[in-house]
Amino acid sequence: MTEEKVKPLNWEPTPGIGYSVVRRPDGGMHYTFTDLSHETLVHWHDFAADHLIDSDRLTTNLYDLREVQEITEEAVDYAIEVNSDPSSRNIRLAVVVKNEAVREAIVKVPSLTTTSGVEFKVFTNVAEAEDWLDRPLTIIV
């Protein structure tokens, strides 16, 4: 049995950027956002796009947006662009939100995305999101 190599995270805290990210035990990523400023969105976009390069296996990502009070149109546009990358179809994505306004904005993203196949669900509880992400991965068609 060979051990699967996990892609390096290549992320370090940057002053003024409103998110952090760590590797999940399964090799996916756990993002925690505190704000969605333009600087944060640009930094996240570039980081996320870099990590989609050479994506060749199914993975899980968790986005914790509980500290975010509203989702701007700019944030939706960036999310649609990243979610439209063909490599994103290899992802099961859980988003945790605190309020209905953020949930409503987030659920628009998959419907406006040009690439299909992302398994996507919104939660208000991290434990429930983790349970959903921990289900066995299947081929997403």
Short description:
By secondary structure, the chain is of the alpha/beta class. 33% of the residues lie in helices and 19% in strands.
Describe the structure.
- 33% of the residues lie in helices and 19% in strands.
- It is α/β, with parallel strands linked by helices.
- Strands 1-2-3-4-5 form a five-stranded mixed sheet, sandwiched between helices.
- α1 runs parallel beside α2 and α2 runs parallel beside α3.
Annotate the secondary structure layout.
Elements: E1 19-23, E2 29-33, H1 38-52, E3 59-64, H2 73-83, E4 91-96, H3 100-111, E5 119-123, H4 126-133
Parallel strand pairs: 2-3, 3-4, 4-5
Antiparallel strand pairs: 1-2
Helix pairs in contact: 1-2, 2-3
Features:
5 strands, globular, 5-stranded mixed beta sheet, alpha/beta, 141 residues, Transcription Regulator spoIIAA, single chain, 4 helices
